[in-house]
Amino acid sequence: MEKESFLKEFEKIKSECCDYLSSQTYYDCSHMLSRVLEEVDPLIQFEKPRVMIYGIYNAGKSTLINALCKNEVAEMGAAPTTAQVKEYEPEDCDYVLIDSPGVDAPIEHEKITEDNLSKCHVILFVMSNKGIFEDKSNYKRMIELIDKNIPFIIVLNEKDDNYRIHKDDTEEEKNRKLQAREKEKKDVRYKIIENLKKYSGRESIHDEYEIIEINAKSGLKGVIDGKAKLYEKSKVGELDARIRQLLSSEKQLRIFHQPLNNMLSILGEITAVLFKQRTGINQEGFEDSIQTMLMMKNNVMESMRIYTKQIVYGHADEVARIIRDENNAAYSEVKKFILDEIEAHFVSRVNELAYFINSNFSEMGIDVDSKASFMSEKKSEGKDEKFSLPIIEKNEIKQPVFDIKPAESSSKSSSIIDLIGSLFSSKSKKEEEEFNRMQNEAQAANENARHWMEEQVRVIQDSKQKSLALLDELQRTLITQVNYALSNKFDEVTEQIRMKNQIETGNATKIDKMISEINGYENRFNVLADKIL
Length: 533
Hints:
Strand content: 5-15%
Distance between the termini: 10 Å
Largest sheet: 6 strands, mixed
Number of strands: 6
Radius of gyration: 32 Å
């Protein structure tokens, strides 16, 4: 969920809740509403997430900005002559795009760029397939940006298509151009992988960045001309989707934890007071027990969120290997193991609730069914195919085998006289030819070995990315199911306590309705909390 959407939803629920509390005449909530102004509102006033577009001059930064914004807002083809950092915030975009001077900007502009980098949530480093891929300074700068621990995407923009397909091309020519184009893109990607590893000195640096291939020019043309298929083919939409996914991560939404917890605490205190008035129980410790149970509900749900996330993401590398191996049976076993682990933890938390109820409300005969399963409470939305094993494209590059053999002896049909006569004239020439042949074969074998190794890295990168995307969807669904079941369990117990402590007073109906309304707002806030992953 995007931060801006999250904030809008939070504000909507908070506003409705405060309006309801301020309208109540039975219980004066004015002091609690003052606490909302002091403890909640100051924590949710912040700007949209910022995406810095950085990169090499003439790689297509401005075109990419226009394609992402779906409007020609940035001047294209301009040289980096200003120190200004421009912001673009179109109406249909959930994040702000920051256009930096880039790698080629004068050194005096670097401080301004650095100041803005520290305020960004995602960095896009734009390169083109026609760029310079051997410049050490470019890779050193990329490594510096990667080391900032900000989500880093290398956007490989396809420019100057030398293999454009024409209407009068034969099928053979079309296939040749398609193959040449794909080879060029893969060679560029292999070069990026190789150079980042080389200049960083880190074998596993490929785990710290992503590479997404696009065609910004086609994407913008698709938007301007209303050609949806052209826009889709450009993969600009895929880049936009990945940015939004990164901006919905825990690092971007965790700042909502505190205002959410403060809001739930305020509602819990109101509910505790209402319970005391509703039941008419004044014995020492009852109010504290009610408040403790409400706090326990929020703590247990937060604990289950964290535990579910740890269990699911703990299998990220294993699922990545399974994706590479296309092993559906192994993937089914992993999913079963995850469900069993979460189920066991769910049951243990329900048992904790049962123990608490028995210790504090034993005289009421409250029943807590500890055998219930979270999977039976709410079915997963959508079909199971949503979590089916994804497929990654693999290029058939033979694993290198170094087996270079000397050439066979000359034909035995040569005469002894010819052989003796050529000893002094051709021996060195044959040796040189043999040496050249073996050298060429060795170079070809080395090139194949390098491509094979880089292909393995690419496959590992893609499988890891698909693994994380798959597990992200899985954990969101599981957390929703688990906390739906837990919320029902706590609400069920709360209802039993309220019903068994009913007293015949004129205010009973009002209190019941108010508690029910507040529980509804608590549940809505907890649904939002489920999205802080």
